[in-house]
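Try this one yourself first.
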């Protein structure tokens, strides 16, 4: 492992001397809050002045690689990951504090990463060879690493973990290679595994009867985005992806629990509390990939869950029932199955929702989402697929139709009714962030960064970043100035678009515009 550490004190960011920043001006987790609500109370940047945002600084994170991570902000530092690099950056001027390059111990499966978790002065991230690694947040020094997946059978760890109450929660990725998904908890200090929950049940486990024969052994059900936690109840919400083989449903007859589901676990023990399956026996490579959003609306405890099937689901946490299902992109025949001659389905395998959740604005009780509008032609293999380690286990193939576009859509969390929508020229893989200033930020895969008026979707500001925006868009305040930070570079591995070196760009208002100090 090569470590470059410099500048911790030369840039005026001594951890001992920096004044503490109020919690509501930080961004300490993938979705800001552990409940998945990507909303900021900051209002210095607002609907009246958002058009005056300008670039403050930028920094290249690595020479190459994809960038689809969600950055976090703790104690004045931005932390962000590329496929194998973890970087700490001064959140005001983009100066590098430290950079760590992870060197794989085994052959990596998919060099892609969603970001880090933070707990008590340490960072946690997954790797392409199935490791969970902890770093000292101040220096970048590795604290420990644990092997949590087996890359020899296609397992890797690309999700952004979450940390709470001295524990780190992380799942396994690799469903497209026929792995059997599972969720795990680890001691934050030592890395010791505390519990495991199998997301594809085997014999004797709840839900095992929904899998024919031994199809559960390679049933998919991976996780590759992040997770949500109800801190008061101690509940962990896990969004589970599609079954495997993705297209050949005949070889796995049944509902195929817990794929395409939200699974709720006791965070301390890993015990199953309840679940809701949004799509039974998925044959189109959909899945609940994005983290759930936990919210209270008109006195009801609800979940918002985006799906690759193109719908935003609202689930009642008391009854465990779906109360609304709203299409937020082009949706064709939902019962269409792959055929040997080819079947066009909308959305295609890129979604709908991909790995970023909608943002919930508690002031207006609106959910604002970014989605993909990109159909696929699905082809079914004439014979059942044969599982082989580290090989695609799909039972068919897909081809994108055209180049795709995207949608930014606001819906009422109470009713599921569409309030407004805006079509983007390229798919929206990026995160969506709403603010108390009445502005919603997101970006598209051609590099356009947008600022919308949250109330009605009016486009207030647009900026070309020159690289695909496929990760986090966050906001925070340091001193008297509010900032907006966005990832830019090469985005989703499956999508051609603007590409450049992985970069973080920070924006702010010009001094004197909404700022009280020079």
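Now uncover the answer:
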């Amino acid at each position: 492992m090569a470590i470059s550490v410099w500048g911790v004190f030369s840039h005026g960011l001594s951890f001992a001397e920096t004044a503490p920043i109020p919690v509501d001006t930080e961004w300490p987790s993938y979705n800001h809050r552990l409940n998945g609500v990507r909303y900021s109370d900051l209002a210095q940047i607002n609907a009246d002045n958002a058009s005056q945002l300008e670039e403050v600084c930028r920094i290249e994170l690595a020479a190459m690689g994809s960038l689809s991570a969600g950055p976090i902000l703790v104690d004045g530092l931005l932390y962000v990951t590329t496929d194998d690099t973890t970087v700490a950056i001064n959140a005001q001027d983009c100066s590098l504090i430290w950079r760590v390059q992870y060197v794989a111990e085994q052959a990596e499966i998919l060099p892609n990463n969603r970001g880090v978790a933070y707990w008590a002065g340490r960072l946690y991230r997954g790797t392409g060879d199935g490791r969970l690694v902890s770093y000292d947040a101040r220096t970048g020094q590795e604290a420990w690493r644990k092997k949590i997946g087996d890359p020899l059978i296609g397992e890797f760890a690309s999700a952004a973990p979450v940390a709470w109450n001295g524990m780190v929660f992380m799942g396994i990725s690799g469903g497209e290679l026929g792995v059997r998904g599972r969720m795990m908890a680890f001691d934050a200090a030592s890395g010791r595994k505390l519990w495991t929950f199998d997301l594809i049940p085997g014999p004797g486990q709840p839900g095992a009867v929904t899998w024919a024969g031994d199809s559960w052994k390679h049933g998919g059900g991976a996780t590759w985005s992040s997770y949500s936690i109800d801190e008061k109840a101690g509940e962990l919400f896990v969004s589970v992806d599609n079954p495997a083989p993705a297209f050949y449903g005949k070889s796995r007859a049944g509902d195929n629990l817990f794929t395409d589901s939200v699974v709720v676990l006791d965070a301390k023990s890993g015990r199953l509390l309840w679940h809701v399956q949004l799509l039974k026996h998925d044959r189109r490579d959909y899945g609940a990939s994005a983290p759930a959003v936990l919210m209270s609306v008109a006195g009801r405890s609800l979940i918002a869950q985006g799906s690759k099937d193109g719908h935003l689901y609202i689930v009642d946490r008391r009854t465990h029932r779906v109360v609304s299902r709203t299409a937020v992109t082009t949706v064709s025949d939902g019962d269409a199955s792959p055929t040997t001659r080819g079947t066009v389905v909308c959305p295609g395998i890129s979604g709908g929702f991909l790995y970023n959740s909608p943002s919930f604005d508690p002031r207006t009780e609106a959910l604002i989402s970014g989605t993909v509008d990109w159909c696929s032609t699905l082809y079914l293999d004439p014979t059942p697929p044969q599982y082989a380690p580290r090989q695609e286990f799909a039972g068919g193939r897909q081809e994108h139709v055209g180049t795709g576009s995207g949608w930014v859509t606001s819906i009422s969390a109470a009713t599921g009714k569409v309030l407004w929508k805006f079509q983007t020229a390229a798919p929206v893989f990026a995160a969506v962030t709403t603010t108390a200033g009445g502005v919603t930020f997101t970006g598209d895969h051609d590099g356009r960064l947008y600022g919308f008026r949250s109330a009605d979707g009016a486009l207030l500001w647009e900026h070309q970043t020159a690289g695909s925006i496929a990760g986090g868009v966050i906001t925070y305040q340091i001193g008297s100035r509010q900032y907006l930070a966005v990832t830019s570079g090469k985005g989703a591995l499956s999508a051609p678009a603007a590409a450049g070196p992985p970069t973080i760009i920070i924006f702010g208002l010009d001094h004197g515009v909404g700022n009280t100090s020079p």
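Discussion: The chain has one domain: 2-509. The radius of gyration is 21 Å.
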